[in-house]
Amino acid sequence: MKVALLQGSIVGSKTRTALQHVESVFRDKYPNIEVTMLDLADYDIPFSDGRNYLEYTGDAGFVTRTLMEADAIVVGTPIFQASIPATLKNIFDMLPEQALQDKVVSIVVTAGSSKHYLIPETQIKPIISYMKGQLTQSYVFIGEKDFYRKEIINDDIHFRIERLIEDMVSLTDALKDIRDAKEAEYGF
């Protein structure tokens, strides 16, 4: 199984901290799963111009191909001005309409205000559904109070991240079994 962790902003540290924790849980509990961290701050990504994702070269080509080859994706994003960052939306725009078909997608959100807890429901989930992704039932919302000195200090957040990953792995395996059984019906 291949999992891509998409850090959807080029500024700030909280989302990066959260996804680094996600990565460490994967490495500790699921060492046989290939995990790739895609921190958009590490890449030079142009604005989407409508071409096929295979035509992008350099960093944009690497990021889009890694997402397309993944079996599951964890989208990590901060909330700025009650919205997702343009850098994250740009990545979604670079991918084809059905880019997330047969992929399980989970969401980890960081925000400075608890008032932003519905942004994943109103902005991120509709995009993922439109792109045919299979969403895990819940997402992890991490507020300002859950961090101290670039570390997550809330044990409940640690538990919820572990549960999110467990659900993600189980759902990915179940969907693979369903696809395999469906393909076996064809008999060739």
Automatic annotation (TrEMBL):
Superkingdom of this protein's organism: Bacteria
Residues covered by the NADPH-dependent FMN reductase-like domain: 1-144
Organism: Oceanobacillus indicireducens
Pfam families membership: FMN_red (PF03358)
Keyword Oxidoreductase recorded: yes
GO molecular function per UniProt: oxidoreductase activity
Protein name per its UniProtKB record: FMN reductase
SUPFAM superfamilies hit by this protein: Flavoproteins
Key words, A-Z: Flavoprotein, FMN, Oxidoreductase
